[in-house]
Amino acid sequence: MFNRAVSRLSRKRPPSEINDSEGHPSSSHQTLKGTSKWATSLENLLEDPEGVKRFREFLKKEFSEENVLFWLACEEFKKTQGKKQMQEKAKEIYMTFLSSKASSQVNVEGQSRLSETILETPHPLMFQKLQDQIFNLMKYDSYSRFLKSDIFLNHKKSEEQEENSPEAQTAAKRASRIYNT
């Protein structure tokens, strides 16, 4: 019996195959949503439009919204097709975020700054080094403060209230609560 138990434990299964006693995926491996997912990484936050909205709201209060706007502009730029469109978008990003006269200048290291001449021959990853700098700035500075902010905590609280509302509960959950009390 002991050997059989060890044998079962030693079989490695991917998380997608781990089920509870009723054959449903284990709750510890269910997909996280909303604030729970945002709290796992800045990458997850930036993948969610609602997360970006809340993070921007927070950064605006910290007077650093230009960081996430630059990061988003770079992500869009990578998807740009055609040399003419790339030149236009590259110039727009440069003038908005990188130029000494930029309206929303981001704080990047001096030697990392691009010269205007590079805008003539754009390529999808031309802003990558600068984007990585801004990402790391947000990740190690703003993101941790965001997770402690009223904006994040209030949104998390409202999500939890919605999840616990009677409308959000399935008939099975209500029946289970009724019969198990």
Structural description of this entry:
The protein is 59% helix and 0% strand. The chain is built from nine helices and no strands. Helix 4 (49-61) packs antiparallel against helix 5 (65-78), helix 5 (65-78) runs antiparallel to helix 6 and helix 5 crosses helix 7 (128-147). The chain is elongated and about 70 Å long. The model is unreliable at 1-30 (pLDDT under 50).
How would you sum up the major sheet? none
Low-confidence stretches: 1-30
Shape: elongated
Which structural class do you get from the secondary structure elements? mainly alpha
How many helices? The count is 9
Order of helices and strands: HHHHHHHHH
Q: What is the CA-based Rg, rounded? A: 23 Å
Provide the β-strand percentage band: under 5%
Distance between the termini: 37 Å
Helical coverage, percent range: 55-70%
State mean pLDDT (0 to 100 scale): 81
Number of strands: 0
